[in-house]
C-alpha cells in the first residue's frame, strides 16, 4: 500500500453541546480516493472543513505527507505553502467564483500568487485543456458559463497550485445527471494523470461507488463503518449503512419498510 | 376521468427566441402517479406551475390546461384562487422557502381554506390536526413556528397543507430533493399511502430517474421544452425509445455497477436565446442523421405498444433493439 498523503487522527469538534465530529480518523493513500458519506448533521462537511483549515478541531491531528498540518501559520510564505497542500472544490460553482474575473484572470491570479515571476500563459492553456475548457471559455465571465463549465473552472483553479489533496465537498450534487457524468469522468481522468488524492464528501452512495477506492460512513459525528468502497456497498456491516443503501430508490423499492426500519434504528 | 389534461401547451417568456414550453401534452388520471422528468431548463417546473396559473411576470401561456374539466389558461384571478385552495395543490421543493417563518404552523395550514370560506375556523383546525396526525406529525406542532421543527418535519407539514382543501390533483415539484435519502423514503411512503387513501392524482416533477421509476405509473421525459418520450415507467426505463432517455440512464451512477466509467452526454441543452430547427437533441445525439437537423420529429408509438411514444426519427429502431443494458 502506498504511503499516506493525508491522515486524520481522532478529530473532534463540538458546537456547544453537539459533538459535530467525534473521534474521526482516516487515511488517504497517495493518489487514492476516499469518500465520506453521511446525511445532514453527520459531521462530514465539518470534517472536510477541518482538513482544509476552514474550521479548527478541538482535538486531534491532520498529517499531510507525514507532517502535522498546523492549525495557524505565521507569515505569507508559510500560509501559501499550507494552501498548496490541500485545495477545495465547493458544491455551488455559482457562489465560489468571483463574478468580476474572467476564467483566465482567475487562473492567472492564483498562479501569480503561488509562482511569482514565471510566464503563466502555457500553464493556463494546460489547465484549461486538462479540465476540457476551450479558449472561448477562457475569456468569459462566470455568469456566461453553464454550471458544469463553472465547476470545471473551480477544479482548474484548485489544480493550479498542484495540491497533494483535493477536497471535493458535494462537488457534483448541484449538477444535472448528464453534466455530473462529464465531471465525474473528468475527475477520474485527472487522478489517472496526476498523483493527486481525493477526499470526496457526498450524500450520494452511487457517486461514491463511481469515484472512490475507500469509504467511511458517518452518522452523528462518528464513523460507523469504514472499508473498501466495493465491499461496503456490496456487503454493508452496520445497520445504518444498510438503511442508507436500502433508501436509494430503485424499481421494486419499498419506502414503507425503509421508514419502519429507520424508526427502529 | 383525467384530473389533469394538458394539450399543446406553449409558454412564451419575453426576450427568448423560442417557447420555453413547446407543445406539451400530458394527462394524469384520478389516483394515478405520473412523473415528469427532465434536467434544469427543460421546462418541467414551468409546466407544473402553469397548472396553478403560477407563471413568471410577462409569461404567456397558449393551449389548454384542464384541471378536473376546467381550463386554467382562461381563468380569472378569483377562480384561480378557488382552484389553488380546493381542486389542486402544490408541494414545493424547499419547505423553508415556501412557508412563512413568522407565523405558526397552525395558521399556515388553515389560512387557505378559512380565507376562501370553504371551512369555518374551528372545523379547519380540527382538519389540520387530523391531517398532521395522518402525515405523522404531533398535533402540538400547530402552535409551533417553522423554525422549531426539522426540514423533514416541515415537508410533512407542507404535504398536510396541500391536502387541506381535499384536492383532486397534487403537484409535487421535487418534493424530496432537499431531504436526506432516509427522510426521502419516509416522505415518499407517506405520499403513496395518502394517494391510496384519498384517491388523489399526482404529478411528480423530478430530475431523479431512479426515483421516477420507483414511484410512478407513467413517465414523461422533457427536453428543451418538449416531451421527448412518454410511457409506462417500467417499459420506458427498460426499453427507452429516445436517445436522450437512453443517454440519461447511461450517465446515472448506479449502485449495482460501481466503478464503471459513465457514458456522459456530450455538450449541453440548447439555450433560450437560440431558435430551434429540427430535433432539439440532434447536436448531442449519437444517432443523429441529416433529417434530425431539418425536421422536428413527431411523437410515434413503439411497435405494438401504443402508450409508449417518443419524438425521434430513429426511435423505432432503438426501441426494437435489445433491452437497454444501462
Automatic annotation (TrEMBL), chain A:
Start and end residues of each ABC transporter domain: 6-245
Example GO biological process: transmembrane transport
Listed PROSITE patterns: ABC_TRANSPORTER_1 (PS00211), ABC_TRANSPORTER_2 (PS50893)
Top-level division of the source organism's lineage: Bacteria
GO molecular function: ATP binding; ATP hydrolysis activity
Pfam families, alphabetized: ABC_tran, oligo_HPY
Keywords: ATP-binding, Nucleotide-binding, Transport
Family stated for the protein in its record: Belongs to the ABC transporter superfamily.
The protein's name: ABC transporter ATP-binding protein
Natural source organism: Streptomyces yokosukanensis
UniProtKB/TrEMBL annotation, chain B:
Entry's transmembrane regions: none
PROSITE patterns: ABC_TRANSPORTER_1 (PS00211), ABC_TRANSPORTER_2 (PS50893)
One annotated GO biological process: peptide transport
Gene Ontology terms, MF aspect: ATP binding; ATP hydrolysis activity
Main location: membrane
Name used for this protein in its record: ABC transporter ATP-binding protein
Subcellular compartments: Cell membrane
Keywords (A to Z) from UniProt: ATP-binding, Cell membrane, Membrane, Nucleotide-binding, Transport
Keyword Nucleotide-binding attributed: yes
Keyword ATP-binding: yes
Location of the ABC transporter domain: 4-249
Sequence similarity: Belongs to the ABC transporter superfamily.
Coiled coil: none
GO cellular component: plasma membrane
Domain of life: Bacteria
Bilayer topology term: Peripheral membrane protein
Matches recorded under Pfam families: ABC_tran, oligo_HPY
Species this chain originates from: Streptomyces yokosukanensis
Amino acid at each position: 500500500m502506498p504511503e499516506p498523503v493525508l491522515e486524520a487522527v481522532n478529530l473532534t469538534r463540538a458546537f456547544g453541546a453537539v459533538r459535530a465530529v467525534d473521534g474521526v480518523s482516516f487515511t488517504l493513500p497517495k493518489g487514492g480516493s476516499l469518500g465520506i458519506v453521511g446525511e445532514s448533521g453527520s459531521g462530514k462537511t465539518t470534517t472536510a472543513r477541518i482538513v482544509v483549515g476552514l474550521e479548527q478541531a478541538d482535538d486531534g491531528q491532520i498529517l499531510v505527507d507525514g507532517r502535522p498540518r498546523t492549525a495557524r501559520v505565521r507569515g505569507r510564505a508559510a500560509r501559501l505553502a499550507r494552501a498548496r497542500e490541500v485545495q477545495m472544490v465547493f458544491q455551488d460553482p455559482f457562489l465560489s467564483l468571483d463574478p468580476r474575473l474572467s476564467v483566465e484572470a482567475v487562473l492567472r491570479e492564483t498562479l501569480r500568487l503561488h509562482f511569482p515571476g514565471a510566464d503563466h500563459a502555457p500553464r493556463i492553456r494546460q489547465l484549461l485543456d486538462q479540465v476540457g475548457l476551450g479558449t472561448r471559455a477562457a475569456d468569459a465571465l462566470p455568469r456566461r458559463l453553464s454550471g458544469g463549465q463553472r465547476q470545471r473552472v473551480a477544479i482548474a483553479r484548485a489544480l493550479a497550485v498542484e495540491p497533494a489533496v483535493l477536497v471535493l465537498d458535494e462537488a457534483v450534487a448541484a449538477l444535472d445527471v448528464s453534466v455530473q457524468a462529464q465531471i465525474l469522468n473528468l475527475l477520474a481522468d485527472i487522478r489517472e494523470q496526476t498523483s493527486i488524492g481525493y477526499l470526496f464528501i457526498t450524500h450520494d452512495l452511487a457517486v461514491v461507488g463511481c469515484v472512490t477506492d475507500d469509504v467511511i460512513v458517518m452518522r452523528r459525528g462518528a464513523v460507523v463503518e469504514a472499508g473498501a468502497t466495493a465491499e461496503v456497498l456490496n456487503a454493508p456491516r452496520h445497520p445504518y449503512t444498510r438503511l442508507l443503501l436500502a433508501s436509494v430508490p430503485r424499481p421494486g423499492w419499498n419506502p414503507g419498510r425503509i421508514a419502519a426500519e429507520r424508526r427502529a434504528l | 376521468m383525467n384530473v389533469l389534461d394538458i394539450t399543446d401547451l406553449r409558454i412564451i417568456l419575453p426576450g427568448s427566441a423560442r417557447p420555453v414550453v413547446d407543445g406539451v401534452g400530458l394527462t394524469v388520471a384520478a389516483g394515478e402517479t405520473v412523473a415528469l422528468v427532465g434536467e434544469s431548463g427543460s421546462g418541467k417546473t414551468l409546466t407544473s406551475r402553469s397548472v396553478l396559473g403560477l407563471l413568471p411576470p410577462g409569461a404567456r401561456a397558449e393551449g389548454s390546461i384542464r384541471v378536473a374539466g376546467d381550463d386554467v389558461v382562461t381563468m380569472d384571478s378569483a377562480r384561480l384562487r378557488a382552484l389553488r385552495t380546493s381542486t389542486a395543490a402544490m408541494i414545493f421543493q424547499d419547505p423553508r422557502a415556501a412557508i412563512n417563518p413568522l407565523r405558526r404552523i397552525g395558521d399556515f395550514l388553515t389560512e387557505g381554506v378559512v380565507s376562501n370560506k370553504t371551512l369555518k375556523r374551528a372545523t379547519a383546525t380540527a382538519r389540520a390536526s387530523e391531517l398532521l396526525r395522518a402525515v405523522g406529525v404531533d398535533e402540538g406542532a400547530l402552535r409551533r413556528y417553522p423554525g422549531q421543527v426539522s426540514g423533514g418535519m416541515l415537508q410533512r407539514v407542507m404535504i398536510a397543507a396541500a391536502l387541506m382543501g381535499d384536492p383532486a390533483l397534487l403537484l409535487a415539484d421535487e418534493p424530496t430533493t432537499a431531504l436526506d435519502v432516509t427522510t426521502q423514503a419516509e416522505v415518499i411512503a407517506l405520499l403513496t399511502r395518502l394517494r391510496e387513501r384519498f384517491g388523489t392524482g399526482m404529478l411528480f416533477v423530478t430530475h431523479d430517474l431512479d426515483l421516477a421509476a420507483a414511484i410512478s405509473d407513467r413517465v414523461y421525459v422533457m427536453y428543451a421544452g418538449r416531451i421527448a418520450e412518454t410511457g409506462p415507467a417500467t417499459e420506458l426505463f427498460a426499453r427507452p425509445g429516445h436517445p436522450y432517455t437512453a443517454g440519461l440512464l447511461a450517465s446515472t451512477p448506479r449502485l449495482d455497477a460501481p466503478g464503471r466509467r459513465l457514458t456522459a452526454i456530450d455538450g449541453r441543452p440548447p439555450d433560450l436565446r437560440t431558435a430551434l430547427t429540427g430535433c432539439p437533441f440532434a447536436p448531442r445525439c449519437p444517432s443523429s442523421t441529416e433529417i434530425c437537423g431539418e425536421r422536428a420529429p413527431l411523437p410515434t408509438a413503439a411497435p405494438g405498444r401504443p402508450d409508449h411514444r417518443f419524438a425521434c426519427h430513429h426511435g423505432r429502431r432503438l426501441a426494437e433493439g435489445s433491452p437497454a443494458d444501462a
